[in-house]
Amino acid sequence: MTSREVSLKRAEELNKYNEPFENAKKNIIRGTSYAFRVRYAVQKEKIMAMLGGTDDEWDSWTWQIKHRTEDLDLLSEVLHLTSGEREAIKKVGEKYRWAITPYYLALIDPENPRDPVRLMSVPSVEELDESGVSDPMDEEHTNPAGVITQRYPDRLIINVTNACAMFCRHCQRRRKISGYDSDSSAKEIMDSIQYIRENKHIRDVLITGGDPLTLRNGFLEDLIAEIRSINHVEIIRIGTRTLVTMPQRITPAFVDILQKYAPIYINTQFNHPQEITRESVAACNRLSNAGIPLGNQMVLLKGVNDDKHIVRLLNHELLKARVRPYYIFHAKQVIGTAHFGTSIDDGIEIMEHLRGYTSGMAIPTYIVNAPGGGGKTPMQPQYIMDKNEDFVTLRTWEGKIVKYPNNPVCHHD
Length: 413
Ligand SMILES: *Cc1c(COP(=O)(O)O)cnc(C)c1O
Ligand code: SF4
What we know:
The protein is an alpha/beta fold and 413 residues long. 38% of the residues lie in helices and 15% in strands. The chain has helices spanning 3-25, 34-51, 55-58, 61-66, 72-78, 83-95, 102-105, 116-121, 174-177, 186-198, 217-228, 242-245, 252-260, 278-289, 308-320, 344-352, and strands at 148-149, 155-159, 204-208, 235-239, 264-268, 294-300, 323-330, 365-370, 375-379, 384-387, 391-395, 401-405. Helix 1 crosses helix 15 (308-320). The longest helix is centred in the first third of the chain and has 23 residues, at 3-25. Pyridoxal-5'-phosphate binds next to strand 2.
């Protein structure tokens, strides 16, 4: 065989690796597909009519937040709910808050009780299960000042609010989110800034919550300007799920503010390809075009995205929207979210089917948060099978075992 023939044969072999994904992909609904757009348009009209809204109002984030659905009767008109499901929502509602933005509600397939967006937003009876812990992050013991959480030497989190555009059913901060909306006080914020000012090691500040983008532009600008004025702070990051649940929040005025205080990074949380819609992509584009790099922090959720094909498709869709898949978080056992739990093996299996199969750019790091505030810990399939001073035995993505010198050696070719 000529080398061209060998290469062609190899290319054919490689094609075979792609087939299971290509087949699975046909059955995963994408938020940019025609079928989705048709369904979304119908649901949007229906919801707007019920709320008495206009297209312009739909596109306004203040309207979206003000008209969050917290009403079971309205929900039952938009989605097909059995009487058992209605009963469950009522019961869960007495214990945990729920609210869904009209936009996010319109993403749900009204006839599918297992719709991934529905699982993330509509309460289910499984939330009444009491197993799990309430503070697995141990955030109470990593709070050196104000509303700061610090677990690392050179970076920290500042929690500016516990309000969110909507209440994700899988929220890992449920303990803090689901009571009532409260923004951190001016004193708490000032104490936090003061701590950062005095700690010269802090070069990376993450603004998070809750969702900081529930706050007004003016407040956010003051806060960002204050942090930016600290010489040793190199980068600012904002964590928000509004790109997913309320993309209307990313207004040109807001983007203009961010642009002034570059470098700013935004991390968001898309969990399923159905969430990547024309609207959310437009919001991503406004940010990317202004030079704000975007990252995604997926949460691994049973029934939503615990599937290697869904995760791969999600990451492809993200890259098309210029969002870099950054982390996959293993879901902790937070009370009320146990039904979303997967095993770490499930997560590693997904990672196994990314490396080699798809662009390195589409491969995030799979993270388990170590108990007791121990920090983010990467989980990986095993690629080092054996190791001594002279040799490392490697396993390639295809499962080939190869020996590789451990120490630098002289090459005489
Ligand atoms: C996640 C987290 C960070 C940021 O971690 P990176 O790995 O740098 O993204 C910083 N501080 C705290 C407390 C965190 O939980
Ligand atoms: S946006 Fe984040 S903090 Fe808010 S409810 Fe959803 S997961 Fe929790």
